[in-house]
From TrEMBL:
<dbReference type="InterPro" id="IPR002397">
    <property type="entry name" value="Cyt_P450_B"/>
</dbReference>
<dbReference type="Pfam" id="PF00067">
    <property type="entry name" value="p450"/>
</dbReference>
<dbReference type="GO" id="GO:0004497">
    <property type="term" value="F:monooxygenase activity"/>
</dbReference>
<keyword id="KW-0503">Monooxygenase</keyword>
<keyword id="KW-0408">Iron</keyword>
<dbReference type="GO" id="GO:0005506">
    <property type="term" value="F:iron ion binding"/>
</dbReference>
<feature type="region of interest" description="Disordered">
    <location>
        <begin position="412"/>
        <end position="435"/>
    </location>
</feature>
<dbReference type="InterPro" id="IPR001128">
    <property type="entry name" value="Cyt_P450"/>
</dbReference>
<dbReference type="InterPro" id="IPR017972">
    <property type="entry name" value="Cyt_P450_CS"/>
</dbReference>
<keyword id="KW-0479">Metal-binding</keyword>
<dbReference type="GO" id="GO:0020037">
    <property type="term" value="F:heme binding"/>
</dbReference>
<comment type="similarity">
    <text>Belongs to the cytochrome P450 family.</text>
</comment>
<protein>
    <submittedName>
        <fullName>Cytochrome P450</fullName>
    </submittedName>
</protein>
<dbReference type="InterPro" id="IPR036396">
    <property type="entry name" value="Cyt_P450_sf"/>
</dbReference>
<keyword id="KW-0560">Oxidoreductase</keyword>
<dbReference type="GO" id="GO:0016705">
    <property type="term" value="F:oxidoreductase activity, acting on paired donors, with incorporation or reduction of molecular oxygen"/>
</dbReference>
<keyword id="KW-0349">Heme</keyword>
Length: 435
Protein backbone atom coordinates (compact mmCIF):
# COMPACT_ATOMS: atom_id res chain seq x y z
CA UNK A 1 0.00 0.00 0.00
CA UNK A 2 1.32 3.44 -0.89
CA UNK A 3 2.35 5.49 2.11
CA UNK A 4 0.38 8.65 2.82
CA UNK A 5 2.10 11.91 3.63
CA UNK A 6 2.09 12.85 7.33
CA UNK A 7 0.45 14.54 9.01
CA UNK A 8 -2.93 13.48 7.70
CA UNK A 9 -5.08 16.18 6.16
CA UNK A 10 -7.43 17.31 8.89
CA UNK A 11 -10.93 18.13 7.66
CA UNK A 12 -12.49 21.30 9.07
CA UNK A 13 -15.78 20.18 10.68
CA UNK A 14 -17.37 23.54 9.86
CA UNK A 15 -17.02 22.93 6.10
CA UNK A 16 -16.20 26.57 5.38
CA UNK A 17 -13.50 25.69 2.83
CA UNK A 18 -14.89 22.38 1.65
CA UNK A 19 -13.98 22.77 -2.01
CA UNK A 20 -10.54 24.08 -1.16
CA UNK A 21 -9.95 20.98 0.97
CA UNK A 22 -11.26 18.75 -1.81
CA UNK A 23 -8.81 20.36 -4.27
CA UNK A 24 -5.91 19.75 -1.88
CA UNK A 25 -6.99 16.13 -1.39
CA UNK A 26 -7.37 15.62 -5.15
CA UNK A 27 -3.83 16.89 -5.70
CA UNK A 28 -2.48 14.09 -3.47
CA UNK A 29 -4.13 11.24 -5.34
CA UNK A 30 -7.37 9.35 -6.05
CA UNK A 31 -7.71 8.07 -2.47
CA UNK A 32 -6.16 10.02 0.40
CA UNK A 33 -6.37 9.26 4.10
CA UNK A 34 -7.74 12.21 6.08
CA UNK A 35 -8.74 12.95 9.66
CA UNK A 36 -12.45 13.59 10.14
CA UNK A 37 -14.03 15.53 13.03
CA UNK A 38 -13.41 13.70 16.29
CA UNK A 39 -10.06 12.28 15.14
CA UNK A 40 -11.50 9.44 13.02
CA UNK A 41 -9.37 8.61 9.99
CA UNK A 42 -10.89 7.68 6.64
CA UNK A 43 -10.00 7.52 2.95
CA UNK A 44 -11.39 10.40 0.88
CA UNK A 45 -12.38 9.67 -2.73
CA UNK A 46 -12.75 12.64 -5.11
CA UNK A 47 -12.90 11.22 -8.67
CA UNK A 48 -16.25 10.68 -10.42
CA UNK A 49 -15.51 7.27 -11.96
CA UNK A 50 -13.98 5.88 -8.76
CA UNK A 51 -16.96 7.23 -6.81
CA UNK A 52 -19.32 5.42 -9.19
CA UNK A 53 -17.35 2.20 -8.87
CA UNK A 54 -17.44 2.27 -5.08
CA UNK A 55 -21.11 3.22 -4.97
CA UNK A 56 -22.34 0.63 -7.45
CA UNK A 57 -20.32 -2.45 -6.51
CA UNK A 58 -20.09 -4.76 -3.53
CA UNK A 59 -16.57 -3.67 -2.56
CA UNK A 60 -17.95 -1.23 0.01
CA UNK A 61 -20.71 -1.28 2.62
CA UNK A 62 -22.40 1.31 4.81
CA UNK A 63 -23.16 -1.23 7.54
CA UNK A 64 -20.73 -0.37 10.35
CA UNK A 65 -22.04 -3.26 12.45
CA UNK A 66 -20.84 -5.75 9.84
CA UNK A 67 -17.90 -4.10 8.13
CA UNK A 68 -16.18 -1.48 10.34
CA UNK A 69 -14.02 -3.32 12.89
CA UNK A 70 -13.21 -0.11 14.78
CA UNK A 71 -16.95 0.42 15.39
CA UNK A 72 -17.64 -3.22 16.18
CA UNK A 73 -14.89 -3.54 18.80
CA UNK A 74 -15.53 -0.15 20.38
CA UNK A 75 -12.41 1.70 19.21
CA UNK A 76 -14.82 4.33 17.87
CA UNK A 77 -16.87 5.52 20.80
CA UNK A 78 -20.67 5.69 20.62
CA UNK A 79 -20.19 9.23 21.95
CA UNK A 80 -18.36 10.30 18.78
CA UNK A 81 -20.13 13.53 17.69
CA UNK A 82 -20.94 12.00 14.27
CA UNK A 83 -21.99 8.62 15.70
CA UNK A 84 -25.62 8.96 14.64
CA UNK A 85 -24.48 8.81 11.01
CA UNK A 86 -23.05 5.37 11.78
CA UNK A 87 -25.41 3.93 14.38
CA UNK A 88 -28.70 4.19 12.47
CA UNK A 89 -30.10 1.02 10.86
CA UNK A 90 -31.94 2.02 7.70
CA UNK A 91 -32.01 1.24 3.99
CA UNK A 92 -29.00 3.46 3.27
CA UNK A 93 -26.76 1.85 5.90
CA UNK A 94 -27.97 -1.69 5.15
CA UNK A 95 -25.92 -4.08 3.01
CA UNK A 96 -26.92 -6.72 0.48
CA UNK A 97 -30.23 -8.50 1.10
CA UNK A 98 -31.03 -6.23 4.07
CA UNK A 99 -30.77 -3.20 1.81
CA UNK A 100 -33.22 -4.70 -0.68
CA UNK A 101 -35.63 -5.66 2.11
CA UNK A 102 -35.66 -2.18 3.63
CA UNK A 103 -35.80 -0.33 0.31
CA UNK A 104 -38.77 -2.29 -1.05
CA UNK A 105 -41.53 -0.73 1.14
CA UNK A 106 -40.43 2.73 -0.02
CA UNK A 107 -39.93 2.10 -3.73
CA UNK A 108 -43.64 2.31 -4.59
CA UNK A 109 -44.03 5.56 -2.66
CA UNK A 110 -41.82 7.64 -4.97
CA UNK A 111 -43.17 6.62 -8.36
CA UNK A 112 -43.71 9.20 -11.10
CA UNK A 113 -47.46 8.75 -10.69
CA UNK A 114 -47.35 9.62 -7.00
CA UNK A 115 -45.01 12.55 -7.59
CA UNK A 116 -47.25 13.90 -10.38
CA UNK A 117 -50.25 13.65 -8.06
CA UNK A 118 -48.39 15.80 -5.52
CA UNK A 119 -47.50 18.59 -7.94
CA UNK A 120 -50.70 20.64 -7.49
CA UNK A 121 -50.15 20.62 -3.73
CA UNK A 122 -46.49 21.59 -4.20
CA UNK A 123 -47.62 24.53 -6.34
CA UNK A 124 -50.05 25.62 -3.61
CA UNK A 125 -47.28 25.55 -1.00
CA UNK A 126 -44.91 27.48 -3.27
CA UNK A 127 -47.57 30.08 -4.09
CA UNK A 128 -48.34 30.60 -0.41
CA UNK A 129 -44.65 31.23 0.33
CA UNK A 130 -44.45 33.69 -2.56
CA UNK A 131 -47.62 35.46 -1.42
CA UNK A 132 -45.98 36.05 1.95
CA UNK A 133 -42.92 37.53 0.24
CA UNK A 134 -45.13 39.98 -1.64
CA UNK A 135 -45.63 41.84 1.65
CA UNK A 136 -41.91 42.55 2.11
CA UNK A 137 -41.24 46.29 1.54
CA UNK A 138 -39.20 47.12 -1.54
CA UNK A 139 -35.51 47.48 -0.69
CA UNK A 140 -35.68 45.26 2.38
CA UNK A 141 -33.31 42.30 2.45
CA UNK A 142 -34.88 38.85 2.75
CA UNK A 143 -33.22 35.61 3.81
CA UNK A 144 -34.55 33.50 0.96
CA UNK A 145 -33.36 30.23 2.47
CA UNK A 146 -35.45 30.71 5.59
CA UNK A 147 -38.39 32.42 3.90
CA UNK A 148 -38.67 30.25 0.78
CA UNK A 149 -36.18 27.42 0.20
CA UNK A 150 -36.75 25.77 3.60
CA UNK A 151 -40.54 26.02 4.19
CA UNK A 152 -41.46 24.32 0.91
CA UNK A 153 -39.63 20.97 1.32
CA UNK A 154 -40.44 20.97 5.03
CA UNK A 155 -44.16 21.18 4.39
CA UNK A 156 -44.09 18.73 1.48
CA UNK A 157 -42.18 16.02 3.36
CA UNK A 158 -44.31 16.46 6.48
CA UNK A 159 -47.50 16.07 4.45
CA UNK A 160 -46.06 13.05 2.66
CA UNK A 161 -45.35 11.36 5.99
CA UNK A 162 -48.44 12.62 7.79
CA UNK A 163 -46.60 14.75 10.36
CA UNK A 164 -49.25 16.89 12.13
CA UNK A 165 -48.95 20.69 11.84
CA UNK A 166 -48.85 23.08 14.76
CA UNK A 167 -46.24 25.25 16.41
CA UNK A 168 -45.90 22.91 19.40
CA UNK A 169 -46.21 19.61 17.51
CA UNK A 170 -43.76 17.17 15.88
CA UNK A 171 -43.58 19.21 12.66
CA UNK A 172 -42.03 22.17 14.45
CA UNK A 173 -39.79 19.91 16.56
CA UNK A 174 -38.48 18.06 13.51
CA UNK A 175 -37.66 21.33 11.76
CA UNK A 176 -35.53 22.36 14.74
CA UNK A 177 -33.88 18.95 15.12
CA UNK A 178 -33.05 18.46 11.44
CA UNK A 179 -31.40 21.88 11.30
CA UNK A 180 -28.95 20.63 13.94
CA UNK A 181 -28.67 17.09 12.54
CA UNK A 182 -26.34 18.13 9.71
CA UNK A 183 -24.12 20.40 11.84
CA UNK A 184 -20.79 18.55 11.87
CA UNK A 185 -19.14 21.24 14.01
CA UNK A 186 -21.65 20.61 16.80
CA UNK A 187 -20.38 19.88 20.31
CA UNK A 188 -20.61 16.36 21.73
CA UNK A 189 -23.15 17.48 24.31
CA UNK A 190 -25.36 19.19 21.73
CA UNK A 191 -25.12 16.24 19.33
CA UNK A 192 -26.20 13.81 22.05
CA UNK A 193 -29.03 16.08 23.20
CA UNK A 194 -30.23 16.44 19.61
CA UNK A 195 -30.22 12.65 19.14
CA UNK A 196 -32.29 12.19 22.32
CA UNK A 197 -34.69 14.88 21.10
CA UNK A 198 -34.93 13.21 17.69
CA UNK A 199 -35.73 9.72 18.98
CA UNK A 200 -38.12 11.08 21.59
CA UNK A 201 -40.02 13.11 19.00
CA UNK A 202 -40.25 10.18 16.57
CA UNK A 203 -41.35 7.77 19.30
CA UNK A 204 -44.26 10.07 20.17
CA UNK A 205 -45.03 10.62 16.49
CA UNK A 206 -45.15 6.87 15.76
CA UNK A 207 -47.45 6.37 18.74
CA UNK A 208 -49.75 9.04 17.28
CA UNK A 209 -49.70 7.46 13.81
CA UNK A 210 -50.52 4.02 15.19
CA UNK A 211 -53.56 5.54 16.85
CA UNK A 212 -54.45 7.66 13.80
CA UNK A 213 -53.45 5.78 10.61
CA UNK A 214 -53.91 7.57 7.28
CA UNK A 215 -52.92 7.46 3.63
CA UNK A 216 -49.32 8.51 4.20
CA UNK A 217 -45.84 6.99 4.09
CA UNK A 218 -45.47 6.65 7.86
CA UNK A 219 -48.61 4.49 7.99
CA UNK A 220 -47.14 2.43 5.11
CA UNK A 221 -43.91 1.93 7.06
CA UNK A 222 -45.86 0.91 10.17
CA UNK A 223 -47.77 -1.63 8.05
CA UNK A 224 -44.46 -3.05 6.77
CA UNK A 225 -43.32 -3.35 10.39
CA UNK A 226 -46.54 -5.08 11.43
CA UNK A 227 -46.17 -7.52 8.55
CA UNK A 228 -42.68 -8.39 9.76
CA UNK A 229 -40.78 -6.78 6.87
CA UNK A 230 -38.87 -4.33 9.08
CA UNK A 231 -38.01 -4.18 12.78
CA UNK A 232 -38.93 -1.45 15.26
CA UNK A 233 -35.47 0.14 15.21
CA UNK A 234 -35.40 -0.07 11.41
CA UNK A 235 -38.81 1.62 11.30
CA UNK A 236 -37.52 4.47 13.43
CA UNK A 237 -34.22 4.84 11.58
CA UNK A 238 -35.82 4.73 8.13
CA UNK A 239 -38.05 7.60 9.23
CA UNK A 240 -34.93 9.51 10.29
CA UNK A 241 -33.39 8.94 6.88
CA UNK A 242 -36.47 9.86 4.87
CA UNK A 243 -37.46 12.92 6.89
CA UNK A 244 -33.95 14.38 7.06
CA UNK A 245 -32.84 13.63 3.50
CA UNK A 246 -36.22 14.56 2.04
CA UNK A 247 -35.97 17.96 3.67
CA UNK A 248 -32.32 19.03 3.69
CA UNK A 249 -31.35 17.90 0.21
CA UNK A 250 -34.20 19.79 -1.46
CA UNK A 251 -33.66 22.93 0.64
CA UNK A 252 -30.03 22.98 -0.48
CA UNK A 253 -30.92 22.30 -4.10
CA UNK A 254 -33.25 25.31 -4.20
CA UNK A 255 -30.87 27.50 -2.17
CA UNK A 256 -27.78 26.62 -4.22
CA UNK A 257 -29.49 26.93 -7.60
CA UNK A 258 -30.95 30.36 -6.80
CA UNK A 259 -27.58 31.54 -5.51
CA UNK A 260 -25.63 30.22 -8.51
CA UNK A 261 -28.05 31.78 -11.01
CA UNK A 262 -28.03 35.15 -9.26
CA UNK A 263 -24.24 35.07 -8.88
CA UNK A 264 -23.91 34.29 -12.60
CA UNK A 265 -26.46 36.55 -14.34
CA UNK A 266 -25.23 35.48 -17.78
CA UNK A 267 -26.33 31.91 -16.92
CA UNK A 268 -29.70 33.13 -15.67
CA UNK A 269 -30.14 34.99 -18.96
CA UNK A 270 -29.55 31.73 -20.85
CA UNK A 271 -32.41 30.09 -18.95
CA UNK A 272 -34.76 33.05 -19.26
CA UNK A 273 -34.12 33.32 -23.00
CA UNK A 274 -34.82 29.65 -23.57
CA UNK A 275 -31.27 28.81 -24.65
CA UNK A 276 -31.11 26.56 -21.59
CA UNK A 277 -33.87 24.99 -19.50
CA UNK A 278 -34.64 25.03 -15.79
CA UNK A 279 -33.72 21.35 -15.81
CA UNK A 280 -30.31 22.29 -17.24
CA UNK A 281 -29.88 24.78 -14.39
CA UNK A 282 -30.83 22.20 -11.77
CA UNK A 283 -28.55 19.50 -13.18
CA UNK A 284 -25.62 21.91 -13.35
CA UNK A 285 -26.38 23.02 -9.79
CA UNK A 286 -26.36 19.38 -8.64
CA UNK A 287 -22.95 18.94 -10.26
CA UNK A 288 -21.52 22.27 -9.14
CA UNK A 289 -22.88 22.25 -5.56
CA UNK A 290 -23.95 18.73 -4.54
CA UNK A 291 -26.71 19.30 -1.92
CA UNK A 292 -25.12 16.54 0.13
CA UNK A 293 -21.33 16.72 -0.03
CA UNK A 294 -21.10 13.11 1.13
CA UNK A 295 -23.48 10.46 2.46
CA UNK A 296 -21.74 9.32 5.60
CA UNK A 297 -19.04 6.67 5.77
CA UNK A 298 -18.59 3.51 3.73
CA UNK A 299 -16.33 0.59 4.67
CA UNK A 300 -14.08 -1.64 2.59
CA UNK A 301 -15.64 -5.12 2.53
CA UNK A 302 -12.37 -6.42 1.09
CA UNK A 303 -8.98 -4.98 0.19
CA UNK A 304 -9.70 -2.47 -2.59
CA UNK A 305 -6.96 -1.81 -5.11
CA UNK A 306 -7.34 1.76 -6.32
CA UNK A 307 -4.29 1.67 -8.56
CA UNK A 308 -0.96 -0.20 -8.51
CA UNK A 309 0.65 0.52 -5.16
CA UNK A 310 -2.47 2.03 -3.57
CA UNK A 311 -4.88 -0.26 -1.73
CA UNK A 312 -7.56 0.56 0.83
CA UNK A 313 -7.34 -2.22 3.45
CA UNK A 314 -10.40 -4.30 4.33
CA UNK A 315 -12.36 -2.69 7.18
CA UNK A 316 -11.10 0.85 6.60
CA UNK A 317 -13.71 3.63 6.40
CA UNK A 318 -13.90 5.84 3.33
CA UNK A 319 -15.74 8.95 2.18
CA UNK A 320 -17.40 8.95 -1.23
CA UNK A 321 -17.30 12.67 -2.00
CA UNK A 322 -20.30 13.71 -4.09
CA UNK A 323 -18.96 17.28 -4.01
CA UNK A 324 -15.56 16.14 -5.25
CA UNK A 325 -17.04 14.01 -8.04
CA UNK A 326 -19.10 16.93 -9.31
CA UNK A 327 -16.00 19.05 -9.86
CA UNK A 328 -13.73 16.29 -11.16
CA UNK A 329 -11.62 17.94 -13.90
CA UNK A 330 -10.96 14.57 -15.52
CA UNK A 331 -14.66 14.36 -16.38
CA UNK A 332 -15.80 17.98 -16.48
CA UNK A 333 -12.68 19.61 -17.86
CA UNK A 334 -10.31 22.30 -16.58
CA UNK A 335 -13.26 24.65 -15.95
CA UNK A 336 -15.05 22.21 -13.62
CA UNK A 337 -15.08 24.94 -10.94
CA UNK A 338 -17.25 27.15 -13.21
CA UNK A 339 -21.08 27.18 -13.16
CA UNK A 340 -22.28 26.63 -16.75
CA UNK A 341 -25.90 25.65 -17.50
CA UNK A 342 -24.94 24.63 -21.04
CA UNK A 343 -22.22 22.21 -19.90
CA UNK A 344 -22.45 18.97 -21.88
CA UNK A 345 -21.46 16.83 -18.87
CA UNK A 346 -23.67 18.51 -16.25
CA UNK A 347 -25.88 15.43 -15.80
CA UNK A 348 -22.89 13.22 -15.05
CA UNK A 349 -22.78 13.51 -11.27
CA UNK A 350 -23.57 11.37 -8.23
CA UNK A 351 -25.43 13.96 -6.17
CA UNK A 352 -28.39 11.58 -5.82
CA UNK A 353 -26.15 8.56 -5.32
CA UNK A 354 -25.48 5.82 -7.86
CA UNK A 355 -26.31 2.19 -8.42
CA UNK A 356 -28.36 0.34 -5.78
CA UNK A 357 -28.17 3.35 -3.44
CA UNK A 358 -29.57 5.81 -5.98
CA UNK A 359 -31.95 8.15 -4.14
CA UNK A 360 -35.61 7.17 -4.37
CA UNK A 361 -36.65 10.76 -3.70
CA UNK A 362 -34.92 12.27 -6.74
CA UNK A 363 -38.13 12.69 -8.82
CA UNK A 364 -39.87 14.49 -5.95
CA UNK A 365 -36.88 16.72 -5.18
CA UNK A 366 -36.50 17.72 -8.83
CA UNK A 367 -40.24 18.39 -9.16
CA UNK A 368 -40.28 20.55 -6.02
CA UNK A 369 -37.22 22.51 -7.12
CA UNK A 370 -38.57 23.05 -10.63
CA UNK A 371 -41.89 24.40 -9.36
CA UNK A 372 -40.11 26.57 -6.79
CA UNK A 373 -37.61 28.07 -9.23
CA UNK A 374 -39.98 28.76 -12.11
CA UNK A 375 -42.55 30.33 -9.78
CA UNK A 376 -39.99 32.40 -7.87
CA UNK A 377 -38.35 33.98 -10.92
CA UNK A 378 -41.73 34.56 -12.58
CA UNK A 379 -43.08 36.36 -9.50
CA UNK A 380 -39.88 38.35 -8.83
CA UNK A 381 -38.12 38.89 -12.18
CA UNK A 382 -35.73 41.47 -10.68
CA UNK A 383 -34.60 39.17 -7.86
CA UNK A 384 -30.97 39.90 -6.96
CA UNK A 385 -28.36 39.05 -4.36
CA UNK A 386 -28.31 41.68 -1.63
CA UNK A 387 -24.53 41.95 -1.82
CA UNK A 388 -22.98 40.18 -4.85
CA UNK A 389 -19.48 40.97 -3.59
CA UNK A 390 -19.98 38.99 -0.38
CA UNK A 391 -20.61 35.23 -0.69
CA UNK A 392 -23.17 33.92 1.83
CA UNK A 393 -21.76 32.00 4.76
CA UNK A 394 -21.81 28.25 4.24
CA UNK A 395 -23.59 25.81 6.54
CA UNK A 396 -21.47 24.39 9.37
CA UNK A 397 -21.23 20.98 7.78
CA UNK A 398 -19.08 18.65 5.72
CA UNK A 399 -22.23 16.67 4.85
CA UNK A 400 -24.83 19.31 3.93
CA UNK A 401 -23.92 21.86 1.24
CA UNK A 402 -25.85 25.10 1.42
CA UNK A 403 -25.88 28.50 3.10
CA UNK A 404 -26.68 29.72 6.58
CA UNK A 405 -28.58 32.58 4.94
CA UNK A 406 -29.31 33.63 1.37
CA UNK A 407 -29.80 37.43 1.55
CA UNK A 408 -31.64 38.78 -1.50
CA UNK A 409 -33.58 41.79 -2.69
CA UNK A 410 -36.84 40.77 -4.32
CA UNK A 411 -37.03 43.77 -6.63
CA UNK A 412 -33.37 44.56 -7.23
CA UNK A 413 -31.63 47.58 -5.70
CA UNK A 414 -28.87 50.10 -5.87
CA UNK A 415 -25.46 48.48 -5.37
CA UNK A 416 -24.45 48.39 -1.77
CA UNK A 417 -27.92 48.97 -0.31
CA UNK A 418 -27.67 46.14 2.16
CA UNK A 419 -29.66 45.85 5.37
CA UNK A 420 -30.23 43.05 7.83
CA UNK A 421 -32.41 40.24 6.39
CA UNK A 422 -36.05 40.46 7.37
CA UNK A 423 -38.37 37.67 8.38
CA UNK A 424 -37.29 34.30 9.75
CA UNK A 425 -33.74 33.12 9.34
CA UNK A 426 -30.22 33.93 10.38
CA UNK A 427 -29.56 30.77 12.38
CA UNK A 428 -29.94 27.04 11.92
CA UNK A 429 -32.46 26.93 14.78
CA UNK A 430 -35.05 28.87 12.79
CA UNK A 431 -38.60 28.51 14.04
CA UNK A 432 -40.54 26.04 11.94
CA UNK A 433 -42.75 27.42 9.20
CA UNK A 434 -46.43 27.27 9.95
CA UNK A 435 -48.67 24.80 8.22
Amino acid sequence: MAQQACPFLSIDPSGQDLYGEISRIRAQGPAVEVELPGGVRAWWITGLELNKRLLAGSETSKDAYQHWPAWINGDISRTWPLAIWVSVRNMVTAYGADHSRLRKPMAAAFTKRRVDALLPRVQEIVDRALDALEHVPEGEVVDLRAAFAAPIPHEVVCELFGVPPGEEGPRAALYRIINRFFDTAISLEDAQANAVDLYGTLTAFLRHKREHPADDLTTALIAAHDEGSIGEQELMDNLILLLTAGFETTVNLIDNTVHSLLAHPDQLDLVRSGRATWEDALEESLRFEAPGAMSGLRYAVEDIEIEPGLTIPKGDPLVVSFAGAGRDPERHGPDAERFDVTRATSRDHVSFGHGVHHCLGRPLAMAEATVALTSLFARFPRLALADPSRPPKRLRSIISTGHEELPVLLHGSEAGAVRKPSGPGGTRDTKAPRG
